[in-house]
Amino acid sequence: MAQFGFENDIHSILKLDMPITNGPMARWQRKASSSSASSLNALSPGKSAGVSLGSSKTPSKTPGKNKKSTPSKVGGDRYIPTRNSKQMDVASFLLSKENEPVDTNNATGTSESQKAWSIALNGYNIEDAKILHLGGKPLNAPEGYQNNLKVLYSQGATPASVKKTRYISSTPDRILDAPELRNDFYLNLLDWSSRNILAVALHNSVYLLDATQGDVTLLMTLEREEDYICSLSWTKEGTYLAIGTSDCKIQLWDVYNQKRLRSMNSHTSRVVSLSWNDHVLSSGSRSGHIHHHDVRVADHHIATLTGHTQEVCGLQWSPDGRYLASGGNDNMVYVWPRVQEGSQPVRSLSEHQGAVKALAWCPWQPNLLASGGGTSDRHIRIWNVNSGSCISSLDTQSQVSSLVFAPNYKELVSAHGYAHNNVVIWKYPALTRVAELNGHEDRVLSLILSPDASTVATVAGDETIRLWKSFEMDPVKKAKEGLVKSTRGAISQSIR
Fold this sequence. Notes:
Elements: H1 2-14, H2 27-41, H3 85-99, H4 107-122, H5 126-129, H6 150-153, E1 174-177, E2 190-192, E3 197-202, E4 205-210, E5 216-221, E6 229-234, E7 240-245, E8 249-254, E9 259-265, E10 271-277, E11 280-285, E12 289-294, E13 301-306, E14 312-317, E15 324-328, E16 333-336, E17 347-349, E18 356-361, E19 368-373, E20 379-384, E21 389-395, E22 400-406, E23 411-416, E24 423-427, E25 432-437, E26 444-449, E27 456-460, E28 464-468, H7 475-495
Antiparallel strand pairs: 1-28, 2-3, 3-4, 4-5, 6-7, 7-8, 8-9, 10-11, 11-12, 12-13, 14-15, 15-16, 16-17, 18-19, 19-20, 20-21, 22-23, 23-24, 24-25, 26-27, 27-28
């Protein structure tokens, strides 16, 4: 008999999810039956009318007090069950069993055995009696669905805060005719002053374009028809223009008074490259020699640099005036010190396999130099002149005729001849292609950046000059930089 009693206890424990039929009557049921019985039998309020179905009886009055019982409505109170410790242990076991990871290999057998045990013990399958069952993977939201709560609870960047990619027009802002332009790779026929005046050499004449007003002025013309202009270079202030010619001379002009100040003779062949460093003008010629000229004194020729064996077609002083970079038709790049520090090169860079005309110093890193090779090389190389190492190299698949850094977006711009005849914008220092500017029908000979660094001007063998507005700053960023500059100016004035 004890065995049957134990089985009955186990059976009652496992039937937790079933309705309780043999337990004590709920309190609200007792009160409901009490009120219905009193209405039928017209019993007095002081008598007890609620009879418990269990073994114990609940008194209708509070012990020790002779007061009427509190009237109640049907369903007006909650049922508080009582469970023994065995029931809690079983419930804890079942909960922990549900949280265990499922063995995929034995999942089918386990589910079948659980179903069999449930039917044997309860008389039905518990899974079929569940009101709500949550399972499976959550469904993805349909395409195009917008969650309004994303603004409040998402930490990701909203579309309004995503950085926009700037638009770079593939067509030039302006196209100017340049008749009688010499289609010579080694010449430097274009320069842009700090006062927004663009100078261009057309055969034996120099023309000035006021980029602000749009006016064109003829500055000078060589006396002999067979002579031609080889190079141009503005001073830092933008008031004087140096002109190198094919008759081995350098002319210095006061632009605003349209007056030639002096003519300097020292070279024995045409002067194809010029670069200013304060009052010192450096010039490179077909002989391979580089001359330094102090324009303040009568005896202007103060030093000669010898290293190149062929024409010096590229010449650039660094922004801080510490180094002079020269490139030649002998495929060499030399880095020279200041005039006071001697006439021996600091670095000799020989990795290029073609003529090096394209040279550009990085404005925000003065020790970095970019150089570009001709048709036999086609590479852009970035150098650290302090160590003499090549930081990066890129094969452009086209002749590199000119280079310039664009500081507004920290990019590098290259002009190309054969075979692409285009302009390419590169992200620096990754040297990934940002955009291509196509339109010239012949090789691009030179390019130069405007004083505000927003526009690049290119001149090509198709006798056209094209202005590309590819680096205009974002108005918000421009306003912030203007505020910073004005603050710095106020601080400097207060210090003075």
